[in-house]
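(Deposited chain)
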Amino acid sequence: MTNPKLGEEANNLITATGGKYGKMYFLSSLLEENYGLFNEIWVEICKKEKKVQKTEGDGIS
């Protein structure tokens, strides 16, 4: 059964093994093959998050 929060079968980014208790998650071969691209995207997301946090903190209290 697919966990709707993780969507491991829907997005093909992770794979799961084991039963309900102690289930382990791993990167899919698709994500492993494209990990460099994933990392570039993640870095850009983090940069935007920092800009948003900095902008939110610039207001006068």
Notes: The chain has one domain: 14-56. Helices lie at 29-33, 35-56.
